[in-house]
Amino acid sequence: MHPKKKAILISLCVSIILMLAKFVAYFLTHSNAILTDAAESIVNVLASAFAFYSIYLTTLPKDENHPYGHGKVEFFSAFVEGVLISVAGIIIILKSSYDLLYTNEIGKLYDGAIIIGATGLINLIVGFYLISTGKKHHSITLEADGKHLLSDAITSGGLVLGIILIQLTQIYWLDGVISIAMGIYIIFNGYKLTRRSVGGLMDESNIELVKDIVKVLQDNRQDSWIDVHNLRAQQYGADLHIDCHVTLPYYFDLNVVHQQISNIDQLINLSGVYETELFIHADPCLPACCNYCKMPNCPVRQEAFKGEIVWTMENVTKNQKHFSQ
């Protein structure tokens, strides 16, 4: 089984078991705070189920209808999970606000705390596992699910402390206050997840990723690579697509140009951690490039070399040659 499928299947099975455990804790205690945690677990199960289907799609090979693969569905999956989390947070706040005005009797809080504490610990372990697997295989879906479980573990930890506080002080309205605080935290996490997924769906530039690519090119640049500009990167799940313009000496024949482009392709794929597909447009050099061109013994040089223009994210992403320093 593919590692991503295995990870999300584990998450789904664990989410179902922990959801049942949290509802058991609620029926024991009748605590709204515990009901809040149990209700969020329903979201965990739904999100994990949708994530499993999304990851199934991402492992399908490219086809005629999806020439770039199916990786974009991961951003949609993360968006759905973020929306579900936010909706759960809003419902939790509304329910808890009502129960804050009309408190109900709660009991067996220590039993509930033990159950919730155990579920929180399990979520912590599974969450770190999902994040680690997601980063290794560049899956935003696994990372999102893992971070969701980590936030769930944090809320469970806070809930356990709150339950103990309620039991010690016998101030039962704290149950509603804790629930509202948890609801706000849940909405905040849902917003962050939704924001990231929308950015991916809208092909928002990944600044850190572009910086890494530019650094690889700068650190390994060859004299014949006179200029790189109009560099853009798009991420489709675990696949990365890069297109850019590379200025080469205009007297290179087609075989040499092809070899130079292949060298850049190999450099990016060997140096980076992404499976990268490059679309490189070769531009011929112009006399205005001579002052920063380092080609030795150039037969057509019209101006002496003055200094190298260091490639940065600011100048490499612009759609123009670097005509001056």
TrEMBL record:
Main location: membrane
Official protein name in the record: Cation diffusion facilitator family transporter
An example Gene Ontology biological process: intracellular zinc ion homeostasis
Membrane topology classification: Multi-pass membrane protein
Source organism of the structure: Pedobacter insulae
PANTHER family listed in its UniProt record: MITOCHONDRIAL METAL TRANSPORTER 1-RELATED
Keywords: Membrane, Transmembrane, Transmembrane helix, Transport
Segments forming domain Cation efflux protein transmembrane: 8-202
Similarity remark: Belongs to the cation diffusion facilitator (CDF) transporter (TC 2.A.4) family.
